[in-house]
Amino acid sequence: MGQKEKAAYLSAIKQRYRTAGRVGKKRILDEFCAICGYNRKYAIQLLNKTVSQHKAKRGKKPKYREPLFLEALTRIWKASDFMCSRRLKTTIPMWLPFYEQSFEPLSDDIRSLLLGISRSTLDRVMHPLRARYGRGLCGTKPGTMLRNQIPIRTDNWDITCPGYMEADTVAHCGNSLAGDFAWSLLLTDIHTAWTECRAVWNKGAHNVIEQVTHIEQHLPFTLLAFDCDNGSEFLNHHLVRYFTNRKEPIRFTRSRPYKKNDNAHVEQKNWAQARQLLGYERIDNPEVIPLINDLYANEWSLYQNHCCPSMKLKTKLRIGSKYRKTYEEPITPYQRILNSSDIPNDRKLLLQQIHNTLNPFNLKKSIDKKLNAILKLTRLSHL
């Protein structure tokens, strides 16, 4: 007889055993021991146990199942746009004072649980809440112009200082690349991971240059080099003139065709910066472009660069056919700017003044409000 059969038999005779007399209990007990092969004392314990006693577990009560703890952790996780556990552990101490300002004060026990939780425990606690997302289409078409004039970056840039940026575009086309729709232009600094996004319509050369200019004017450092893929929005005479016709030309390079790892720093931002915000819905209304740029240039830039820690690869060691990677502790791009000796102190002071006025939860509310207006206008155009 298996364990399931024994448990079913025990459940069937337990009530009869409790209501029986002395002689009846002896007969039931003899039969139970003979059928299941149990020791007589152990069989008596099983028959006398209540349901709650069966479910009771030994050890301490799980401390990470407190409703107030789970509520606070879930709010921070959702407001941080579903960060991984490594980044979330760094985010919690930064955001906890703002959480108590935006929601309610926390007890000392809940606060100590949030501050002391490990990355592995975060993974276990957040596992039931992990969301799954789909994948979209790739809209990069190779540009044939100037492929010989724009050199391929074959060496490693000096990434000990900010200003070396990679560029990429993300298509907001829905399920079809046909027709006109919006694109997101992303620029990521390799050293600090500072990322700026702008929206363009149909990724024409004029629109791309206009937004690249706007991004360059709002960077906290000087743009030194620009590396892109082989898309036609980048490989054109207009962008070449923009970078070369100046007193101090900017180094303009491109990646190898069909080698996404050449632009790995910006490629990994496509999801966190554009997809996670605007999703995979088709945006084919040109009226929303100014609204998206207003969100990208203000709340979204402040939120991502000042409030969201990011990880950087520290070492990469090949062992046989596998790679062992180690990462630096997650910090925000803003903190990397302050730690850099190549940034002037007046720019650092300006950034500090801006940072001191920020509340990540208020930023997230403002982002959601503007995003709802963008999606509402987008869906009205589909009617």
**CATH topology (level 3) name of the largest domain:** Nucleotidyltransferase, domain 5
The structural domain count equals 3
* Principal-axis shape: elongated
SS-derived structural category? alpha/beta
Walk across the major sheet and give the strand order: 3-2-1-4-5
Main beta-sheet strand count, sense and barrel state: 5 strands, mixed
Give the radius of gyration: 30 Å
- Poorly predicted parts: 132-136
H and E string:
HHHHHHHHEEEHEHEHHHEEHHH
Strand element count: 7
Helix % is 40-55%
Write the layout of secondary structure elements.
Elements: H1 3-19, H2 22-36, H3 40-48, H4 51-55, H5 67-79, H6 85-102, H7 108-116, H8 119-126, E1 164-172, E2 182-189, E3 195-201, H9 205-217, E4 225-228, H10 237-244, E5 251-254, H11 264-267, H12 269-278, H13 289-307, E6 313-319, E7 322-327, H14 333-339, H15 345-355, H16 360-381
Parallel strand pairs: 1-4, 4-5
Antiparallel strand pairs: 1-2, 2-3, 6-7
Helix pairs in contact: 1-2, 5-6, 5-7, 6-8, 13-16
